[in-house]
Amino acid sequence: MMNTWMKVTKARSYPKGCWHVALAGTLVLAMVIGCARTPEAEKSEMIPTPAATYRFEDVPIPRSLAIEKKESFIYESEAIKTGILVYGGKAKVGELAHFFKENMVTHGWKLVSNFEREDALLTFSKPGWGCVITILPTGMKRAKVEVRVGPIESQ
């Protein structure tokens, strides 16, 4: 029987060979959020529409994916909404990558970079905001999607 301390400290495991994508995504998001500086005049233009649900309204999610609330986190204040949302479901990595590349554009996002192999790491930007999407295979034609959205410095 596992005690509470062991449950809390148990590390999350990724499929073999996917650790570099998770690390790269985390580093990109840390740089994006760490470099954020929002002048008062621009704040009102950069606030995403407040979500009535546990999601980002301007990030489309395939219907085959379900939110994993225990692994997700959103920080929201009057001026900002940022966080990491984790989804899982029956889908292939390539199909999900194609979905995001096609649909993020219709929500005002621009594809900045795209790394695909067994897994995928997609980065998008729009004025004042950055989004990193990590897609990891979990076996049996299933995948895990991590969506990270945060402010970036406008240039």
Explain what the structure shows:
The protein has helices at residues 4-9, 19-34, 40-46, 93-103; strands at 65-67, 73-76, 81-90, 110-116, 120-126, 129-139, 142-151. With 155 residues, the protein is α+β, with helices and mostly antiparallel strands. Strands 1, 2, 3, 4, 5, 6 and 7 form a 7-stranded antiparallel β-sheet that branches. A hairpin with a 3-residue loop joins β4 and β5 (120-126). The longest helix is centred in the N-terminal third of the chain and has 16 residues, at 19-34. It is globular and about 40 Å long. The protein starts with a helix and ends with a strand. Residues 1-14 and 37-52 have low confidence and may be disordered.
Task: Describe the SSE topology.
Elements: H1 4-9, H2 19-34, H3 40-46, E1 65-67, E2 73-76, E3 81-90, H4 93-103, E4 110-116, E5 120-126, E6 129-139, E7 142-151
Antiparallel strand pairs: 1-3, 2-3, 3-7, 4-5, 5-6, 6-7
Which features does this protein show?
single chain, 155 residues, alpha+beta, TATA-Binding Protein, 4 helices, globular, disordered N terminus
The H/E string reads HHHEEEHEEEE
Q: Rough shape? A: globular
Topology, number of strands: 7
Termini, distance in Å?
A: 54 Å
